Amino acid sequence: MRDQGISEEEVMEGLQRMRERDLSYHRIFSSMCTPPHPIALLAHEKFQETNLGDPGLFPGSAELELQAVGMMAELLGYPDACGYLSTGGTESNIQAIRAARNGYSFRDGNIVVPKSAHFSFDKIGDLLSLDIRKADLDDDLKVDLSSAESLIDDKTVSLVGIAGTTEFGQIDPIDEMGEIAADYGVHLHVDAAFGGFVIPFLEGDWRWDFRVEAVTSITIDPHKMGMATIPGGGLLFRRPEDLERLAAYAPYLTLARPKALTGTRSGAAAAAIWAVMNHLGKAGFKEVVGRCMDLSRRMVDGARKVGIEPVIEPVTNVVTLRMDDPEGVRADLLERRWRVSTTRSPKALRLILMPHSTAESVDLFLEDLGDVVKRRG
Ligand SMILES: Cc1ncc(COP(=O)(O)O)c(C=O)c1O
């Protein structure tokens, strides 16, 4: 740190130089984040100094959190669900599993997740000393139910299903997982960090949320397809007693029994989430998701024209293109300033068609993809 501070102008110049090094989203197909909706930015700015960790000082912000959780609860099929706004999918997954584990007296338990689960579950194993058992996937890259069932034993504290997998955007058969969870009397946590703001707005009725009786908790991330500001996550529980198992005692705060993992929490995030959900409403989100799905199909159709097949037809707005050397193709595309990612198994190029994606960017990308593939023979 400097001995003497520098002027505001110099600070802003320094910041601007760094900001220019950041990429702009328009050539990014690798991210599950997107620029926040303009109303989220306005809301965020207004509430920047507020702290949800001490809600008695900021009752307005606390009410925004309550209402945002209520809107998500309704969206997820159970208006009475309770929960809180977290920093994102990782925290929500940690806390959901911690709540499940805290319901048991033993500490050497396990959880059963699909092999497609986000890497946050590996962190959970480490943090909570749980054995993370990974169930096989079927040909559609959904969890194989018999594999999942075979991994459950009397030390299993939760079964986990993914609604919108990180790599392939696939949705696990939550309904059938619910039957297994009910049979064995274990929690069923649904990680819908990505799918939470997508699946409710897709055509067709997916039974994947609290409408499935056995679902005990859901992770949903407003800072992904919810177009809120970062960090904006959500964690919802069906039963208040599960949320209560996360409580700590903090006598010096205005809330004596906080449930969140972090102490100080941004009221700005709550304001941003509240603002986008109220501003767009279901109709607005349906339009956004519809556009992302149209672009996903456009990407698949265009890829097929250059002889590349998708691994699965897009279920959500994640497109995966089957190829022998996706890493090589990714490197070639990087030289053309496209940011894409790859999957592990099966090997594929992975593209996420987010609210910032456009028909123009998809078409430009497809031109480059065709060229790269042709040159590589
Ligand atoms: C399915 C799923 N769960 C959890 C996460 C973790 O979310 P975050 O990066 O907000 O912690 C992600 C991130 O992409 C995800 O795709």
Can you tell me about this structure?
- By secondary structure, this protein is an alpha/beta fold.
- It has two domains: about 10-35 and about 280-375, Aspartate Aminotransferase, domain 1 (Alpha-Beta Complex); about 40-280, Aspartate Aminotransferase, domain 2, CATH 3.40.640.
- The chain is about 40% helix and about 15% strand.
- The protein is built from eleven helices and ten strands.
- It has helices spanning about 10-20, 40-45, 60-75, 90-100, 120-130, 145-150, 175-185, 240-245, 265-305, 325-335, 360-375; strands at about 80-85, 110-115, 130-135, 155-160, 185-190, 215-220, 235, 320, 340-345, 350.
- It has a seven-stranded mixed sheet, with helices on both faces. A three-stranded antiparallel sheet has the order 8-10-9.
- Strand 4 (about 155-160), helix 7 and strand 5 (about 185-190) form a beta-alpha-beta unit.
- Helix 4 (about 90-100) packs parallel to helix 5 (about 120-130) and helix 9 packs across helix 11 (about 360-375).
- It starts with 7 loop residues before the first helix and ends with a helix.
- The relative contact order is 0.16.
- The mean pLDDT is about 95.
- The structure holds pyridoxal-5'-phosphate.
- Pyridoxal-5'-phosphate binds next to helix 4.
